[in-house]
Amino acid sequence: MGDVDLGASGLGPAEGRKFGWWRPRGPRAGRDASALRRRLAAPGVVVVLALLTLGAVLVSVGVGYEIARHSDEKLVAEQRQALRNATSEIRTMFAHGRDIDPRFVRMIEQSARLKGLTFEITPPDDDREFQPVIDGDGRIAGFFTWERTAPTTAAMSALTPYLAALIVALIAFAAFSLWHLRRAARKVCDSEALARRAADQDKLTGLPNHAKIVELLDLALAERAPGETTTFVVFELDGMADVSSNFGVLGSDELIVAVADRIREAAPAGAICGRIGSDEFALLLTADDGADVDAIVAAVIESIARPHWFDTVVRVSAHAGFAQAPHHAATRGELTRRAELALRAAAKKGPGSRVSFDAQLDTVSADQKFIQRELPRAVSAHELELHYQPIISAHGGRIVGVEALLRWTHAVRGPIGPAVFIPIAEQMGLMDTIGAFVLRRALQETKRWPDLYVAVNLSPLQVRDGSIVEMVRSALEDTGVSPSRLMLEITEGVLIDNPDEMVRRIEDLHALGVRVALDDFGSGYSNLGYLQRFPLDKLKIDRSFVTALGNTANGGVIIQAIVALGRALGLSILVEGVETEQQRVLLRLAGCDEMQGFLFARPAPAATIDRLLEQQKQGGGKVLPGTDVEAATAGKLSA
Ligand code: C2E
Ligand code: MG
Ligand code: MG
After folding, report:
1. Which of 43, 144, 316, 416 has its CA 20 to 30 A from that of 3?
2. Is-above-0.85 flag for pTM?
3. Pick from 331, 109, 145, 352: nearest CA to 220
4. How far is the CA of 418 from the centre of ligand 1 (A)?
C-alpha cells in the first residue's frame, strides 16, 4: 500500500515524518485496476505471449507431421504385409521369368490397397516401391512394383498453408485484443483515478473534503501510537453572508480559497486541512501528548483574520472548536461530535474565539437527547400550546396585534423554551407538523380578537419548503380568517441563503393577501443593503438594539438610522424587547410604529389577552404599563 495522496493539502509524507505526525496509508480503492493495468502494460507479457503462441503452433505442426509420417509408414508396412500374404499363398502360380495374368495383378492390387501395382522381372530403377516374388521353388520369380503413397502426409501438406494463415490471423487477433484490453484498462484506471480525486477533494479549494477527512480521521485514530494525541479542529467562518451579499458568489468563492491557503500556511507541517462545509474547515493533527494545540488553533484563527486583499480589503473572522483523542473521545463519531459541541460554544463566545471540548459542554447535549426523546410524544399528546404577546401601537398605545409564541411545559422538566426545542424539531423533521399546528391554532384563536392581527413565526425550514404557500392558503380557508389579519415572520438567514427563491416565496404569500415581516432584524447579518431586494411589509428590530439604547453612546443613532432606512423602503417598523419606559420613549421618538416587550406584557395564554382587551376597552384604550406615559424627551435619543 502506498502513501495516501494528500492532494492540495500539499503535505508530503516526508514532511509528515519531520513533524512527527502520523502518516496515513493509502486507500484500497483503485488498487485492483492499477494492478491489472500494470500487468497488462508490461511489454514482456505481449512478447512472451506471442512467442508462446508461435512455439505452440510450431510444435503442433511438427507433431502433426510426425504423426502423419508415422501413419503413412504404418500403411506402407500393412500394404507390404498384405502383398506378402497374397503372394505367399499363391507362390506356385509364379514362374521365373514369366509374366502373370494382369487381372490377377489387379486383384492383388485391390486386396493390398496398392496403387499402380505391376509385376516385373527386374526391380525398378526409380523410387517406386518393390517387393520380390518367390516362386514355389524358392527362387525369385520377379518383382511386384507399385507407387509410393503417403495420404496423411499429403493431406497435412495441403492443409499447412491454410493452417499457417489461420495461425497468423489468430496471433494478430490476440495481439489486437490485448492492445484493446490494455487501452480499456488504462481508460478505466484513469477515470477511476479522476473519480477518486473528485470524490475526495473539495472542488473549490482542492482540499480533502468531508468524506476524505472522515476517512483520514479513521486512519489517524487507528494508527495513533501510545503517547500521541489526535486532535480534530473545526473552524467556522463568521460573516460570510455579508461577504456574499457584498461581493456575490464569486467573491465569496475567492475568499474561501484565500482562507484555505491561510489555514494551510498557518497549520504545522504534516497537519491535514480539509473543507467540510461551505463555511467550515477542519484540521487534523496527530502529535505527541503535550503539543500546544491551542496555540496552533489560535495561530490559524489569527491568520484567517488578517485582511485579505482583493480589489478591496476584505476581513473575515473565524471561531474554532476542537476535541482530542484519547482524552475527550475514543471513536471518530464521538470525537467529531464533541469538536462540533466545542465549535457551537465558540460560536456563542463570538468571532475569533476558540474552545476546547469540556465535559460540561456535553450536558447541553444531554438536554438535547432528552428533548429528542420527549418531543415527538409531546407533539402527539398535544402538550404544545400557544401564548400570545401583545403588539402595541407606538402612537396611542393600543394593542394592535399579537405574536403567537410556542410553549411547551414538560410534566417533569417544566417549561422548555421554543428557542431550545424548535432547532431540535427542525433536525427531527417535526417542524412541518408543529408549524401547521401553530398556524391553525393561532388563526383559530385569533377569531376572538377581530380587531387584532396575529403574527406567526415560520422556521427557516418551513420557509424554504415551497409547500408553505399551500399550507397557509388552506389554513386561512379552513378557519375563515381574513388573510390581511395574518402576519408571517421570517428571519434574515433564510433570505440570504437563497434570495431569488425567497423573493418568489414572499410574492406568493402576498398573493394570498397575507403580510410578511422580517423578524430579529440586526441579530445576525445586520445588512441593510439587501433589504430592498425583498418585498417585505414590516421590519422587527431585534431586541439587542434596544438593549444598546441608553447603554452605549450611539445606540439611539443606530436605531434611528434603521428606522429611517426602513421607512425609506416603505416598511412598517416594530421594535422588540422593550423593557423600560426610557426605551419606549426613545423608540417612539425614533419614529417606530409598533412595540413589543415585557414593559407592556409578557407572552400569555389567549384568556389573558381577552382580559387585557377587556381592560383596554374599559380604560379608554390605555391599560398596559407605559402606554399612558407620554414623556416626550426630545433630544435624549442619542444620549
Ligand atoms: P421571536 O419571534 O423574536 O419572539 C420574541 C421572543 O422574545 C419571545 O421569546 C418573547 O418571549 C421574547 N420577548 C418578548 N419581549 C421581550 C422583552 O421585553 N425582553 C426579553 N428579554 N424577551 C422578550 P420566546 O417565546 O422564548 O421565543 C423565542 C423564539 O422562538 C422566537 O423569537 C421565535 O424565533 C421562536 N419561536 C417561538 N414560537 C415559534 C413558533 O411557533 N414557530 C417558530 N418557527 N418559531 C417560534
Ligand atoms: Mg417572532
Ligand atoms: Mg424576534
Report:
1. 43
2. no
3. 331
4. 7
